[in-house]
Design a protein that fits this description.
By secondary structure, the chain is an alpha+beta fold. It has two domains: 139 residues, Alpha-Beta Complex (Nucleoside Triphosphate Pyrophosphohydrolase), CATH 3.90.79; 64 residues, Winged helix-like DNA-binding domain superfamily/Winged helix DNA-binding domain (Arc Repressor Mutant, subunit A), CATH 1.10.10. Helix content is 30%, strand content 28%. The strands form two sheets. Strands 1, 2, 3, 4, 5, 6 and 7 form a seven-stranded mixed beta sheet that branches. The chain has a three-stranded antiparallel beta sheet with strand order 8-10-9. A hairpin with a 4-residue loop joins strand 1 and strand 2. The longest helix has 18 residues. It starts with 10 loop residues before the first strand and ends in a 7-residue tail after the last helix.
Length: 230
């Protein structure tokens, strides 16, 4: 027996908002591409696709991100469901947007080149198709909230990093300069960084010590009610 036969049908899609941090330019960037099919062919777009009948929404989001970056097990969070009736001229389509954070040097360049995608600074983003610009704005707002309350910024950095690199990341996320002394004091007071016996000397003769994020320590503190609060 078939149920819901008299109900209207619609399509369910996924759109991926993929952020990366460019350490050299101290910029937060977004991975976008030129759309290769109608409607809106040739215009800038987020990576997206339809949910298949044999996969969950989360599985579709992971598949879509993998197709573009070649990466699995990246930080990914469901952002919002976009369902305005006329949002896509191609048909009645509801899209669930996800945002992901990746280390910008880890992605598979062949995957990115295959789709004609580019890393664009969030301060220089072009107009995107449909409601994709609204998706990005919501994702940036959510990212800033998460960065204040959770250590998700470390998802955008290499395994070892310096305090100046970390501060540069948070300044890129918030799009504002931060007080160097206050940022360092608050960060080190949490006890979540492991100092290494190694320095980064490309930026200055004196060099800055490398650190690693103590993920297990954070999980232990979190279980005790710890509040990141950077």
């Amino acid at each position: 027996m078939k149920f819901y036969q008299n109900q209207d049908k619609l399509l369910l899609a996924i759109d991926s908002i993929i952020f990366g941090f460019d350490e050299g330019q101290h910029e937060l960037k977004l991975l976008i591409l030129k759309r290769k099919f109608e409607p809106a062919m040739g215009k800038w777009s987020l990576m997206g696709g339809f949910v298949q009948k044999d996969e969950s929404i989360d599985e579709a989001a992971k598949r879509t991100a993998f197709q573009l970056t070649g990466l699995q097990d990246v930080y990914m969070e469901q952002l919002y469901t976009f369902g305005d009736i006329g949002r896509d001229p191609g048909g009645r389509i509801v899209s669930v947007a996800y945002f992901s954070l990746i280390k910008i040097n880890d992605y598979n360049k062949e995957h990115v080149e295959k789709h004609g995608a580019s890393w664009i600074p969030i301060s220089e983003l072009p107009d995107l198709i449909f409601d994709h610009s609204e998706m990005v704005k919501k994702a940036i707002r959510k990212l800033r909230i998460r960065a204040r309350t959770q250590p998700i910024g470390f998802e955008l950095l290499p395994e070892k990093f310096t305090i100046p690199q970390l501060q540069g990341l948070y300044e890129a996320i918030y799009q504002t300069p931060l007080d160097k002394r206050n940022f360092r004091r608050k960060l080190l007071a949490m006890g979540l960084l492991k100092k290494l016996d190694e320095k980064e000397k490309e930026s200055s003769k004196k060099g800055a010590f490398y650190y690693r994020f103590r993920k297990k320590k954070y999980e232990e503190l979190l279980a005790k009610g710890f509040n990141f609060g950077l």
